Amino acid sequence: MATSDGNAVFVLLLLCTCFVTTTLACDTSGAKFGYVGSVGPAHWGSLNPNFTRCSKGKNQSPINIKTSEVVYNPKLEPLLRNYTATNATLVDNIVNVELRYEDPAGTVSINGKKYSLKQMHWHSPSEHTINGHRFPLELHMVHKDEHGNVTVVAFLYRFGRPDPFFFQIQDKLFELYAEGCRADKGGEVSAGVVSMMSLRQHAHMYYRYAGSLTTPPCTENVVWIILAKVREMTPQQAVALMAPLEASYRHNSRPTQRTNGRTVQLYHRFWSNEETSSP
Ligand SMILES: *[C@@H]1O[C@H](CO)[C@@H](O)[C@H](O)[C@H]1NC(C)=O
Ligand SMILES: *[C@@H]1O[C@H](CO)[C@@H](O)[C@H](O)[C@H]1NC(C)=O
Ligand SMILES: *[C@@H]1O[C@H](CO)[C@@H](O)[C@H](O)[C@H]1NC(C)=O
Ligand SMILES: *[C@@H]1O[C@H](CO)[C@@H](O)[C@H](O)[C@H]1NC(C)=O
């Protein structure tokens, strides 16, 4: 099969060149925070006066979602997402790999308000956990309204079949990776037109809660929408998404935070009156 052969070559290339980068000490001094040691999550709050929310905030993310404690809310609406295929840029942010949209890429509607898609990025392993279970990967689609209020739509991934979305950016990931140690200068490559079509599926059930950005400055009042349906990708795809990053940032997951009494609400399409009463 042509695709799996192509995949195998890609992985082989990654593995060979990975070896080279891991032996080079990349300069990541441009990063304002990290995931290990003195710049790790436990110290974020004191790294910069603007980061105090990371240690003092009471509504922080990520959290562990206990499915026995989620509250079904029949008033929650279906996830209304209207994305358009648009030009994107793949960016190495040192701390993660991001797909950034310069042009309007579409919106998600929450309580009748529209939030525009700005960027998406990946964390490995997952930041949110379900009943204490951590997944290999988590994708965050970051949306903002005109006041800067943030809504993140998150997807959890387990290892399994290939993720079709990934194929649109795999060559660009490799290009970014091949740039090597330019991370400290903010490497980026044009990714061309990227379609969000495959990410619109499986929204029958989602969790929703009020949290924060999972990276400094840990800004709060972020609406989190976490799709309950766990998606799949191959281990090779997960490796490729982290490969452009310097070794210490390939594990870029913030530990779960206290809920402090916050409830996680559940939307379930088949339980809502609206849907069950329609033919
Ligand atoms: C804190 O944030 C403000 C506004 O973004 C910025 O001007 C300032 O330089 C930041 N302070 C530090 C210490 O980074
Ligand atoms: C989706 O967005 C496009 C362009 O942004 C717009 O023309 C269209 O009406 C929107 N569709 C819905 C169902 O909101
Ligand atoms: C994407 O960018 C190319 C080159 O700048 C341009 O020709 C094309 O029209 C753009 N496509 C979209 C959907 O914006
Ligand atoms: C959005 O931001 C505005 C201005 O900061 C604020 O007044 C409003 O409450 C926010 N809305 C939501 C839904 O968070």
UniProtKB/TrEMBL annotation:
Keyword check for Secreted: no
Cofactor(s) listed: Zn(2+)
Alpha-carbonic anhydrase domain: residues covered: 31-268
InterPro entries: Alpha_CA_prokaryot-like, CA_dom, Carbonic_anhydrase_a-class, Carbonic_anhydrase_a-class_CS
Keywords: Lyase, Metal-binding, Signal, Zinc
UniProt signal peptide: 1-25
MF terms (GO), sorted A to Z: carbonate dehydratase activity; zinc ion binding
Organism of origin: Zizania palustris
Protein name from the UniProt record: Carbonic anhydrase
EC number(s) stated in the UniProt entry for this protein: 4.2.1.1
The UniProt record lists the keyword Metal-binding: yes
PANTHER family, per the entry: CARBONIC ANHYDRASE (PTHR18952:SF243)
Annotated GO biological process: one-carbon metabolic process
Catalytic reaction annotation: hydrogencarbonate + H(+) = CO2 + H2O
Family, as annotated: Belongs to the alpha-carbonic anhydrase family.
Lineage: superkingdom: Eukaryota
CDD domains: alpha_CA_prokaryotic_like
Function: Reversible hydration of carbon dioxide.
